[in-house]
Amino acid sequence: MDRGRRNFIDTADSYAAGRSEIMIGNWLRARRNRDSMVIATKVGKSAENPGLRARVLTRAVEASLERLGVSHIDLLYLHIDDPAVEFEETLLAVDELIRAGKVRHFGGSDHTGNRLIEARIASAQLGVAPMAALQNHYNLMHRSEYEGDLAHVAARQGLGVMPRFALASGFLTGKYRQRADLAKNERGGEVAKLLNRRGLRILACLDAVAAAHDASVASIALAWLLTKPNVVAPVVSASRPEQVLDLTAAAHVQLTRHQVADLDRVSA
C-alpha cells in the first residue's frame, strides 16, 4: 500500500472467531473491489487451528481463504512465535503456499529481533521466501519495545513495519482526558494506565501540532508514526464510519522536523 492509497485491510483468523474475515469477504463481494484491495490476515491464534505446525498452518490459510472468499492472501502474518515448531517447518509450509499462489508475502507479528534474524538465516539456507513485513506494538505511548532491537532488525532486513495499537486503544485520539472519560471505552482499564502526567503531556503536544495543521489529534499521532523509518501502514480500527476520514487523513499530513522532535521529546 502506498502512502496515498486507502486500500489496506488487516484482520486475523482469530478475530471474532473468524467472523471478521467473513464480514470482510462479504464486503469485498458486495463492492466487487478485491483487485484494488490489499488484504492481510494472521494465523496461529485461532481455537480451530492453533500454532504453526505445517499442516495446521496450511489448514488455517485454506480456512481464511474460504471465509474471505478470495483466491489469495496478499500478506500473511504468523500471529505468534511458536517455539514448539522449528522455523524450517513453518517457513517451508509458507513457501509452499506462496508457490501455489495462495499467499503473496508473509511476515511476523510477535517475534523478537533475534527470532527475526533466525528466520532470515533459515530462509536463506532453505532457499525459500523470507519475511517481508513486521507487525508490532508501537505508538507514542509505547516506544521502547520497537525502537531498540526490532527497529534495527527491520531496517537491516528491509521489513515493512505495520504498527498495531497505533492509537493506544484510543487514548491517542484525545477523547480520554480525565477519569470520567474512561467509561466511554470497554478497554477502560488499559487506557487508565496511560492517563498520567506523561500521557497528558503527549496529548498537549498533539493538540498543539493538530491545531497547526487543522487536523485531528488521531491524524497527528498516526502521521508521527509515518515519519519513522520502515513504517508503511499503522494498523488502526474505527468504531464509527465517520472516524475513518481522520485515520486516512494522516497519510497527507506532513509534519515539520521541529514538530516531530517535539513529539519525540515529550514521549521519550
How are the secondary structure elements laid out?
Layout: E1 8-10, H1 19-31, E2 38-43, H2 54-68, E3 73-78, H3 87-99, E4 103-108, H4 113-126, E5 133-137, H5 144-157, E6 160-164, H6 188-192, H7 197-213, H8 217-226, H9 243-249, H10 257-267
Parallel strand pairs: 1-2, 2-3, 3-4, 4-5, 5-6
Helix pairs in contact: 2-3, 3-4, 4-5, 7-8, 7-10
CATH topological fold name of the domain at 1-131:
TIM Barrel
What structural class is derived from the secondary structure elements?
alpha/beta
Head-to-tail CA distance between termini: 29 Å
* CATH architectural name of the domain at 1-131: Alpha-Beta Barrel
**Mean pLDDT value:** 94
Low-pLDDT stretches: none
Number of strands: 6
Strand content: 5-15%
**Going by CATH, what is the homologous superfamily of the domain at 1-131?**
NADP-dependent oxidoreductase domain
Radius of gyration over alpha carbons?
Answer: 19 Å
**Percent helix among the residues?**
40-55%
Q: How would you write the strand order of the largest sheet?
A: 1-2-3-4-5-6
The CATH class name of the domain at 1-131 reads Alpha Beta
Give the helices and strands as they follow along the chain.
Answer: EHEHEHEHEHEHHHHH
Please work out how many helical segments DSSP would assign: 10
Main sheet characteristics: 6 strands, parallel
Task: Specify the overall morphology.
Answer: globular
